[in-house]
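thought: fold this chain, then report.
action: predict
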Amino acid sequence: MDAQKSIMTFYDIASGPPVRPYAPNPWKARYALNFTNTPYCTTWIPLPDVAATRKKLGIPACRKHADGTDFLTLPILYDPTTRQEGTFVGDSFDIAIHLHNKQHSSPDGGRPPLFPPNSLALHRTFNAHVDALFTLNGVVLAGYYMPLDPATADASRAEYARLAGVSRWEDLEIPPGSEQRKEMLAAFEAALGSGLAAWFVRRDEGPFLEGGTPMYADLIVGGWLQMMRNCLPEWEQLRGWHGGLWGRLHDALEEWAQVS
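observation:
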């Protein structure tokens, strides 16, 4: 196949300006694309157009909102190298599996696999655990400060307020420096400590879960750290929690943080 025709298309949420990725699940997939050295280009989708884009491409929702309605979100990956019409993959974990299978069929000497042998089910459970931990403790502190595109920010904020069950976007703010925010940050730090930091038991060997060897589990955490870096006012504070674990992990993942 022509090299240009083998480039995958990655659909991500447009922030801006400047346009930069900030959402955790697209970041998980972007890390995986770079980790597997997969050629791709990014198609940036304005946040209010995400649901329509997913419907247009014929990709069903992979999650639900709290009210039971379809959560039509990104990322999406289009791989033109599979089947005559190509393949769309519409979930970050499924994208990682797709890339792992392609990597496994065409191994890159010296590059570790996304998923170590017999770890897929464990990774799926870990992904759900990390998502729940950051959603319950981090999103409420960081979501208000998402770098929304000013051109579409009003519509995005109105939709987020509706989904959160509040009348105004401003009702979602927890002001920096407030006692409530300090208490919630302390709870976030504690949750990360007991629910995640305790799993990094080989810190003397490297910043990853397995010490010096990265795997998809590290990219899962890294996706959420990217959201915190782009949205959480206290990002520098979070970097230093638990002996600087999160800052070291984030920095180590920069090798695979290219935006193509």
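thought: worth noting. Residues 8 and 40 are 4 Å apart (CA to CA).
final: tokens above.
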